[in-house]
C-alpha cells in the first residue's frame, strides 16, 4: 500500500500477463570488480563515507557480475531495466516464456520471479483519480511576527520547525549545507519551475534525477507528491516558506508508479537507494510504504513486517549499513481495523528512522500507523507534524496537508542540519541522539515511539559527547591530566572519574599553601574538565594539583610561566 498523502484510486488489474521479473544470482563470479579497488564502482564520496565511519567494503558492494548480465542481455526479447548489487539480482522485462526458460537454465541463476504486469499508459498528474485528504491553501500568520528573533524568516513553515526547536540549529548556521539527500518518491511534478525551490536550481543543488519507473532522466512530468515532500525540506522563499534544511543538496528519484501496486516498485526503490549510495549521498528520504499489492499473493502480513523480510526493508537496512541515514514515513493507515494499521515496509527496518504523525499540539494523528514492528522493535521511532503540515503548492505558496508523508521530510531536513554540525559522528550515532532528545525517550510507546525530537537538546547531547571524545583523546591511557603544562594562565584538570563520589581537587603552591579548592560531585566513568580560575596572576613557579575521591589519591606537578 503506497504511503502517498493523497490516497490514489488505482485500476483493478485483472489477471494480466506479467512482463517484469526479478532474476536472482547465486554469486558474483566472473567479475572484473574487487573489494580492493572500490573506486571502480563507488564514488570518492561514497568511499569517504565508509572510511569516516569505519565501514569495510564487502561483497555486497560489488556490482552484479557483468558476465551474467551479458548472458541475459543476449537472450532474445529481454530488456534489462535495473540491477541490485546488494541483493544480487536484476530486473528484466519480457513477455517471452521461452526467454524465461532459457534464463532459468543458466547455472548462475538462483531463481526467477514475476513481479509486475503490463501497466496502462502514464497519465498526467492532474488527470489521475485522487480523493481523500485534500490539500488546502494556507494563509500564513504575519511572517515577521512568526519568525521574530530567528535567522531565517520561515513564514508558514515556522510551526513545524519550531515544534522541534529546529531554529536553534539554523541560528547556529547549520542549514544542511554540504549534506546530500536522495528523495525517493512518485514524481516531482513541475519542481523546476516552483518559486519556493528556485534556489535549488540557481545554486545547482539538484545533483541529478532519474525515473526508475519509465527509465529516463526526468522526474518533473509525474506526480507532485515528491515536489511537496522536497519543499518541506528545501523551500527557501524567505517570509513565505523556508524548510527544515534549505541549503542541502539533492538527488531526485522516481520509484513509485501511482497507477498500480506491485513489487517492481520495491526493486525500483532499491536501485535508487544503491545509486544514492554509490554517488555519495548522505541520507535517503522516502515517503513511500508497502504492505498490500494489487495481487494479494505479494502482500506483506504484519508478521512479514519484522524488519528482515521484504526486499525494500532489507535494502533500507543495507543502506544504513553503508553509512547513510534512512528516514521513512511510518504510514497513514492507523485507523485500519486490520493488520494494515502497523508500520509499512521499509519503515519496519531496524535501522530505518520511521516517522509517525502528530498535530501542532503534540497529539497523535489517528491515521498515523502503529508500531511496533512484528519483532517488537519500537516503531515509529519519532513523530513530527502531520496534520496541518505546510508544503509548497505549484505556485510556490503555502498549502496545508495531512499525512506522515510530510512528517518524515521535516525530520529528515533537521537531521541533515544536525549532522552538518557533528560530521564526525556515524549515521546510527546521530539517530541515537535524535531519539534521546525526544520527549518520550524514557517511556516509548506504539503510537509516538520515542516521541517528539528536540534538536536543541540533541545538539547539546552531541556537544557533550564530542567533548567526552576529545577528553578521551587527550587522556589517552591516563585517567587524569592537567594542561597546559607549562601554563601562562589557568590550569585545567581533565579526568575520568574512577568512582562515584564527591571529589576534592586542590591547587597547591611550592610551599604547601592551598591556592584553590574545587569539590565536584562525579559519576564513575564520566569525563570531567575542571579549571582553577585563581591560577591567573600567580607568580611563576612550580605548583601541584592534588586529587582525592576518598578511594583514589594522586598529585600532579604543573608549571606556571
Q: How many independent structural domains? A: 3
What oligomeric arrangement do these chains adopt? single chain
Task: Name the CATH architecture of the largest domain.
Answer: 3-Layer(aba) Sandwich
Count of beta strands? 27
What's the level 1 CATH class of the largest domain?
Alpha Beta
Helix content percent band: 10-25%
Distance between the termini: 71 Å
CATH-wise, what's the superfamily of the largest domain? Answer: Peptidase S8/S53 domain
Shape: elongated
Strand content: 15-25%
Tell me what the structure shows.
This protein has 561 residues and is of the alpha+beta class. It folds into three domains: 17-117, Alpha-Beta Plaits (2-Layer Sandwich); 130-467, Rossmann fold (3-Layer(aba) Sandwich), CATH 3.40.50; 480-560, Immunoglobulin-like (Sandwich), CATH 2.60.40. It is built from 13 helices and 27 strands. The protein has helices at residues 44-52, 66-73, 97-105, 143-146, 158-162, 167-171, 198-202, 225-234, 264-279, 311-321, 404-421, 427-436, 455-475, and strands at 7-8, 18-25, 79-84, 89-93, 109-117, 130-131, 136-137, 180-185, 206-211, 236-237, 241-242, 249-254, 283-286, 325-329, 353-358, 382-385, 387-392, 398-402, 480-483, 491-496, 501-502, 504-509, 514-518, 521-522, 527-532, 541-548, 553-560. A seven-stranded parallel sheet has the order 9-12-8-13-14-15-16, with helices on both faces. Strands 3-4-2-5 form a four-stranded antiparallel sheet, sandwiched between helices. Strands 23-22-26-27 form a four-stranded antiparallel sheet, with no helix packed on it. Strand 13 (283-286), helix 10 (311-321) and strand 14 form a beta-alpha-beta unit. The longest helix has 21 residues, at 455-475. The protein is elongated and about 95 Å long. It starts with 6 loop residues before the first strand and ends with a strand.
Amino acid at each position: 500500500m503506497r504511503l502517498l498523502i493523497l490516497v490514489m484510486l488505482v485500476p483493478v488489474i485483472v489477471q494480466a500477463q506479467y512482463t517484469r521479473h526479478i532474476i536472482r544470482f547465486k554469486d558474483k563470479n566472473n567479475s572484473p570488480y574487487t573489494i580492493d579497488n572500490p573506486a571502480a564502482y563507488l564514488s570518492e564520496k561514497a568511499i569517504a563515507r565508509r572510511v569516516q565511519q569505519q565501514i569495510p567494503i564487502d561483497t555486497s558492494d560489488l556490482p552484479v557480475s557483468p558476465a551474467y548480465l551479458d548472458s541475459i542481455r543476449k537472450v532474445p526479447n529481454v530488456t534489462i531495466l535495473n540491477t541490485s548489487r546488494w541483493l544480487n539480482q536484476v530486473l528484466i522485462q519480457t513477455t517471452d516464456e521461452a526467454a524465461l526458460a532459457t534464463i532459468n537454465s543458466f547455472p548462475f541463476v538462483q531463481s526467477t520471479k514475476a513481479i509486475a504486469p503490463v501497466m496502462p499508459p502514464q497519465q498526467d498528474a492532474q488527470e489521475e483519480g485522487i480523493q481523500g485528504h485534500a490539500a488546502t491553501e494556507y494563509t500564513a500568520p504575519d511572517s515577521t511576527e512568526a519568525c521574530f528573533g530567528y535567522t531565517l524568516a520561515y513564514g508558514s513553515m515556522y510551526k513545524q520547525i519550531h515544534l522541534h526547536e529546529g531554529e536553534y540549529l539554523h541560528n547556529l548556521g547549520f542549514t544542511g549545507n554540504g549534506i546530500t539527500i536522495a528523495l525517493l518518491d512518485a514524481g516531482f511534478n513541475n519542481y523546476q519551475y516552483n518559486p519556493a525551490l528556485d534556489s535549488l536550481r540557481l545554486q545547482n543543488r539538484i545533483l541529478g534525477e532519474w525515473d526508475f519507473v519509465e527509465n529516463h532522466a526526468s522526474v518533473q512530468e509525474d506526480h507532485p507528491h515528491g515536489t511537496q515532500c522536497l519543499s518541506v525540506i528545501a523551500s527557501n522563499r524567505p517570509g513565505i516558506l523556508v524548510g527544515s534544511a534549505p541549503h542541502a543538496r539533492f538527488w531526485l528519484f522516481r520509484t513509485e508508479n501511482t497507477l498500480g501496486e506491485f513489487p517492481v516498485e520495491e526493486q525500483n526503490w532499491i536501485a535508487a537507494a544503491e545509486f544514492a549510495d554509490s554517488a555519495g549521498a548522505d541520507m535517503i528520504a522516502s515517503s513511500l510504504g508497502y504492505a498490500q499489492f494489487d495481487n494479494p499473493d505479494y502482500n506483506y502480513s504484519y508478521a512479514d513486517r519484522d524488519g528482515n523480510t521484504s526486499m525494500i526493508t532489507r535494502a533500507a537496512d543495507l543502506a544504513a549499513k553503508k553509512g547513510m541515514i534512512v528516514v521513512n514515513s511510518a504510514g497513514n493507515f492507523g485507523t485500519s481495523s486490520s493488520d494494515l494499521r502497523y508500520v509499512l515496509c521499509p519503515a519496519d527496518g531496524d535501522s530505518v528512522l520511521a516517522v509517525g504523525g502528530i498535530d501542532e499540539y503534540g497529539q497523535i494523528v489517528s491515521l498515523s500507523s502503529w508500531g511496533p514492528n512484528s519483532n517488537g522493535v519500537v516503531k515509529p521511532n519519532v513523530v513530527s507534524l502531520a496534520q496541518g503540515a505546510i508544503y509548497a503548492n505549484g505556485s510556490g505558496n503555502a498549502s496545508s496537508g495531512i499525512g506522515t508523508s510530510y512528517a518524515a521530510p521535516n525530520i529528515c531536513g533537521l537531521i541533515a542540519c544536525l549532522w552538518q554540525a557533528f560530521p564526525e559522528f556515524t549515521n546510527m550515532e546521530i539517530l541515537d541522539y535524535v531519539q534521546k532528545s525526544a520527549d518520550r525517550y524514557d517511556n516509548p510507546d506504539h503510537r509516538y515511539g520515542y516521541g517528539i525530537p528536540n534538536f536543541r537538546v540533541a545538539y547539546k547531547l552531541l556537544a557533550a559527547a564530542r567533548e567526552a571524545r576529545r577528553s578521551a583523546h587527550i587522556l589517552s591511557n591516563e585517567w587524569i591530566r592537567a594542561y597546559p603544562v607549562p601554563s601562562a594562565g589557568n590550569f585545567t584538570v581533565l579526568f575520568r572519574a574512577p568512582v562515584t563520589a564527591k571529589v576534592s581537587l586542590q591547587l597547591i603552591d611550592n610551599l604547601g599553601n592551598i591556592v584553590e579548592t574545587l569539590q565536584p560531585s562525579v559519576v564513575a566513568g564520566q569525563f570531567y574538565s575542571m579549571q582553577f580560575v585563581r591560577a591567573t596572576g600567580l607568580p611563576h613557579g612550580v605548583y601541584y594539583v592534588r586529587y582525592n575521591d576518598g578511594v583514589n589519591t594522586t598529585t600532579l606537578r604543573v608549571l606556571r610561566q
